[in-house]
Amino acid sequence: MAIKVVERRPLSLAERTYLPQILAGLKVTWANMLRPPVTLQYPEERPAIPTGYRGVPTLVRDPNGREKCVSCQLCEFVCPPKAIRITPGAIAADAPNAHVEKAPQEFEINMLRCIYCGLCQEVCPEEAIWLQSQYSMTGTSREMMVNNKAKLYELGGTLPDGHYKWDRKKAEAERQAHGGH
Amino acid sequence: MEQLLKDFLLSKAWYFIAARGLTAIVILMSIAAYAVLLERKASAWIQGRVGPNRTNHPLIAWIPFLGTFLQKGGFIQPAADGLKFLFKEDPLPGHVRKTTYVLAPIVALAPALLSLVMLPFGRLPTGEVITLCPGADIGVLFMFAISSLGVYGIALAGWSANSKYPFLGAVRGSAQLISYELAMGLSVLTVFLATAAPGQDNPLSLVAMVDGQQGAWNVLCHPVAALIFLICIFAEANRHPFDMPESETDLVGGFHTEYGSFKFGLFFVAEYGHMVIGSSLFILMFLGGWHFLPWLPTVGTGYVAALFGAAWFFAKLVAFLFFFVWVRWTIPRFRYDQVMRIGWRVLLPVAVLNLLAYFLWYAIKG
């Protein structure tokens, strides 16, 4: 590679007094002063959260309003800081979702331990746990920082996915019971 | 009313003297406090931020419009800052030299207050000058003598802190002050020669100098002297780009590293006090003092004119303080050797040449 020698021009008298440079600098800062500030006034103004943001983990329902979590406890096992605690429970035999067999009786995520890694979302076979757009989690006691099942569903809401995994399983089972293949 | 005003300005009764002294303290403290606000706001504007806009008191917030305006403008912030300095714990580190450590902030602030007393702000219609110490118009000489004493505060602080960064800051501060004092004195000599008529009984008077600028301002007649003086007051007030004694990036906090709470607050007020004094001197000597723009006639007559004169002076002072802040947030700090080189090898020779050139011109003009 050819070496290109940059010629160092000696400074002119005006440059050596610094004054033109200082004036140019003052002009730059003056122009900056007239520009509107870029500050986001936080509590009043909120940042736009991009899609795919990994905020506070939440539990979601499917479009039919069915609780998606089947209490398999994979997220509890995978959670690196052991923030998740699930108490499995049974679904009543006469409930419309009886074919799902299990649901969490209690589901707690300790937000003082959670590291927002998203492994629970990645491991969930039911796509029931999602890290969503809530970015600010505050509380005045340790108890307030533990999200229980009701809070998790309140935060999570419903996600519009079209899997209907358990409905299809139920339909398939019924078709076979009626002598289908 | 007129008699009271005259008494306040001129009387030698002890209570009027006390009132004048109190006024000096109140003026300096409040200007310093709001100069800090100006500094914070202007730096925020330059950096695309908003600056202090949260502090408020419920009683003031309750006033419609004005309350919001005061909050957005940050006008309550100086009170919060000042109260913070007052109520913080005042620690006395174990390794300092106690007497001088406590004495240093006082020694730093006293010269700033003292020289404020000598500043003329305007002129009453009866001819008296509005100043806090009437009849002692040795003006510039006193100013230079007293404001240079401010470096004792820095030197004592650096020495008594008994640790290396304050010490380095103090040494730098002293060296810088000595270097720039010379060029400063030489630069104003031309202005004195131009103002003082032969045989005048008070040739060093600031008032005479302001009166001489009714038409053209001195900054137009003596641009080189004005530029040198401007650079020197930046150095004397230890402001960017000459804030060698403080230079927080290489000396932690410089001479006030070991100080906290109210003692630090006093240094802070002293720094802004020196800014105010330096700006006032520049305005009085080069920017026409209490005269409105050059060649323009005075607005109003009698007391209205006097009021407007004081207002022009104050407006110029605010503009100049803003200039100090503007420069600070524009250019980086000079290196210590650069500061010394500019002082001794540029400003001093240029000041001498300027003086010689003025002599020559004066001789030819005859």
Describe the structure concisely.
The complex is a heterodimer of chains A (181) and B (366). Chain A is α+β, with helices and mostly antiparallel strands.
Structural write-up:
The complex is a heterodimer of chains A (181) and B (366). By secondary structure, chain A is of the alpha+beta class. Helix content of chain A is 28%, strand content 13%. Chain A has a three-stranded antiparallel β-sheet. In chain A, strands 1-4 form a two-stranded antiparallel ribbon. With 366 residues, chain B is mainly alpha-helical. In chain B, 68% of the residues lie in helices and 2% in strands. In chain B, strand 1 and strand 2 form a beta hairpin. The longest helix of chain B has 33 residues. Classes of the chains: A alpha+beta (181), B mainly alpha (366). Chains A and B meet through helix 2 of A and helix 2 of B.
Write down the secondary-structure element order of chain B. HHHHHHEEHHHHHHHHHH
Regions with little confidence, pLDDT below 50 for 5+ residues of chain B? none
Radius of gyration of chain B, CA atoms, in whole angstroms: 21 Å
Tally of discrete structural domains of chain B: 2
Provide the residue-averaged pLDDT of chain A: 87
Enumerate the strands of the largest sheet of chain A in spatial order, edge to edge or round the barrel: 2-3-5
Outline type of chain B: globular
Q: Can you count the beta strands of chain B?
A: 2
How many beta strands in the DSSP annotation of chain A? 5
Question: What percent of the residues of chain B sit in helical stretches (DSSP H or I)?
Answer: 55-70%
Gyration radius from CA atoms of chain A, angstroms: 29 Å
Give the termini distance of chain A in whole angstroms.
74 Å
List the helices and strands of chain A in order. HHEHEEHEEHH
Envelope shape of chain A: elongated
> Could you tell me the strand content of chain A as a percent range?
5-15%
CATH topology of the domain at 57-161 in chain A: Alpha-Beta Plaits
Q: Biggest interface pair, residues each?
A: A-B, 13 and 13 residues
Number of separate helices of chain B: 16
Class based on secondary structure composition and strand pairing of chain A: alpha+beta
Largest sheet of chain B: 2 strands, antiparallel
